[in-house]
Amino acid sequence: MKFAANLSMMFTEVEFPERFQAAAKAGFSAVEYLFPYEWDSNLLAGKLHENNLQQVLFNLPPGNWDAGERGLASLPGRDEEFCAGINKAIACAGHLNLSRLHCMAGIRDQSIDHEAQRDVYVSRLRRAAQLCADNSIQLLIEPINPVDIPGYFLNDFGMALDILAEVNATAPDLLKLQFDIYHCHKIHGDVPAWLEKCRIHTAHLQIAGVPDRHEPDHGDLPLQEIMEVCAQLHPDLWIGCEYRPKARTEAGLQWMKSYI
Asked: Of 2, 59, 77, 211, which has fewest CB within 10 angstroms of its CB?
């Protein structure tokens, strides 16, 4: 199985530019993180090259993160900023040889009807996914549980499947699913069943322990069963380790050994 270190959460014992080397020394061959935009893309590309690492994922610009925004895709009246964010992400992805981007949905806007916001979301996703496809990039969406991000618009895997079907109706596989095991367990439970339901739509996996988002072997996840299902259904996909280590990152990596 293939695991990618999430450098936004792991190896925080060192500054961000040094986390690439730390991940490589720990045995990772790929990395992901939330956002690259505060860093020079040539610096990031150099860190990947120096440490023989592959970049597998990052997010489109999320809007004003410090003000609580968590994506722009479903927010009315933000077309210009959303389009600029797509172009920025595609340009950065080109520098980092990246083939997948995650598009955050944003927070529910209570000033408009839910269906109206959904229409904005679907329209933006269709446009963004096509633009990404034109640049050999796969666009992903991810349901996020309402505890970690209260009010997040895409907070249900069933809703995600409906949106994927709608966006992909005219162009199959234009949009894909980022399946986060941690979020699925907190939203629905029964992760193996949802992995099967989402099988043909899933293009990237992520994992963390439940409920505290530490190592996957800490908490309530039936880890062995989930890993067996992932190995059966998605043997070629990267699994992003998007968790907060309970202590030093290296001290908590033993859980991966039997799956590599």
From this structure: 77
pTM over 0.85: yes
Phi, psi of 196 (to 5 degrees): -70, -45
User: Cα separation of 117 and 151, whole Å?
Assistant: 13
Instruction: For residue 225, indicate whether it is catalytic.
Output: no
Mean pLDDT of 231-245: 98
Per-residue pLDDT reduced to its tens digit, 143-157: 999 999 999 999 999
DSSP 26-37: TT-SEEE-S--T
Name the CATH code of domain 2-259 (choices 3.20.20.150, 1.10.600.10, 3.40.50.150, 1.10.10.10). Answer: 3.20.20.150
Catalytic residue among 18, 142, 196, 228: 142
> What is the phi/psi pair of residue 4, to 5°?
-115, 135
Question: Active site includes 242?
Answer: yes
Angle, CA 152 vertex, CA 13 and CA 252 arms, to 5°: 25
Which tens digits make up the pLDDT trace of 6-21?
999 999 999 999 999 9
